[in-house]
Design brief:
about 350 residues; alpha+beta; disordered N terminus; lyase; PhnI; Carbon-phosphorus lyase complex subunit PhnI
């Protein structure tokens, strides 16, 4: 019979020491610096910032180092730290039309105003291991672009909107914006809350949900209207000052997905949209987010809700990898009493089953 196992403070302290030693690895190898993580593992840093809901490259690098590269653990660390920070102000909506663009591609127009900007991308690499990296060979210098990096590029969706071919998504100034960091998610969730939940959702989960819509679960054929990555200004408007202040820049990736038609008695047939925006360079996440955002608008657009990606509760309650990790990993904590009860029940059932068999045989 199992009995409760006792754990002590010393055992836990020893486990932490072992973890620290394990994290450090071979001490003959130079220790990893935060600047190395920040500068050379940039996509990992961007993902942790996005899912941790905190834009701070240094802290994200620290979280990745502390978590030994375990991304969800790093997200957990960053979110936990975020809860200790005071909220000084809320910014006005980001003006992504004024973005200083590093990369911008459109799959619906070849010759978009301002042109396509490939930027730093893996899209055209051959996915072959580059042993020059293992040898420490320095990379060639990056070429300089001819275009003015500060020149604003009009959004591709604006071309469609100017002809009335895509739905207008003007913000409603008189409606307060939800804040999931202050209030729990409630259903049915408004679109602003859904977008917040998706922005901090797990990239892998959203990728799977977005992929399911492309495979036919939700019957929604998308086009990548525009994906752009670049720097945008953060502007606040303190009430006591009465004028806007530019307090810094963020690097973000935005995706406008153009989807099937919709129309009504009040509006002519037009394309609908899905939207994604994440911290840093994260176009896979932004695209998946845009696909899922559009799928979650099914009810709003009068479409049948028949696929998992269209179910608000299913998607939003399972997208958060920190919550999911907590619920799954709690299974490794002691369940001795619960299991003992199950074990006793099973033994009684087996005894009753055996008695019934004996009576039938006699």
């Amino acid at each position: 019979m199992y009995v409760p196992v006792k754990g002590g403070e010393k055992a836990i302290d020893n486990a932490h020491c072992w973890l620290a030693d394990n994290r450090r690895g071979d001490r003959d190898v130079p220790e990893l610096g935060l600047d190395q993580v920040r500068e050379q593992l940039g996509r990992a840093v961007d993902r942790v910032m996005a899912e941790g809901s905190l834009y701070d490259r240094e802290l994200a690098a620290l979280a990745i180092k502390q978590a030994q590269g375990d991304m969800i653990e790093a997200v957990f660390l960053l979110r936990a730290y975020r809860t200790t920070l005071p909220r000084l102000a809320a910014s006005v909506p980001l003006d992504t039309a004024a973005m200083r663009v590093h990369r911008r591609v459109s799959a619906i127009y070849k010759d978009v105003p301002g042109g396509q900007l490939l930027g730093p991308t893996y899209d055209y690499t051959h996915r072959l291991l580059d042993f020059r990296l293992a040898a420490g060979e320095p990379p060639p210098p990056a070429p300089e672009a001819d275009a003015d990096p500060d020149a604003p590029l009009p959004g591709v969706s604006e071309l469609l909107r100017s002809e009335g071919l895509v739905e207008d998504e003007a913000p409603a100034d008189d409606e307060p914006v939800g804040d999931l960091t202050e209030e729990p998610l409630a259903f049915p969730a408004s679109r602003d809350c859904r977008l917040q939940a998706l922005a901090r959702g797990d990239e892998g989960f959203l990728l799977a949900m977005g992929y399911s819509t492309q495979r036919g679960y939700g019957n929604n054929h998308p086009f990548a209207g525009e994906i752009r990555t670049g720097s945008v200004s953060i502007v606040i408007e303190p009430a006591e000052l009465g004028f806007p202040l530019d307090i810094g820049e963020l690097t973000v990736t935005e995706c406008q997905m153009v989807n099937q038609f919709a129309g009504s008695a009040e509006a002519p047939p037009q394309f609908t949209r899905g939207y994604g925006l994440v911290f840093g360079h994260g176009e896979r996440k932004a695209m998946a987010m845009a696909l899922v955002d559009r799928a979650l608008r099914a009810d709003e657009l009068g479409e049948p809700v028949s696929a998992p990606a269209q179910e608000q509760e299913f998607v939003l309650q399972h997208a958060d990898n920190v919550q999911a990790t907590g619920f799954v990993e709690h299974l490794k904590l002691p369940h001795y009493v619960d299991f003992q009860a199950e074990l006793d029940t099973l033994r009684r059932l087996r005894a009753a089953y055996a008695d019934a068999g004996d009576e039938e045989a006699s």
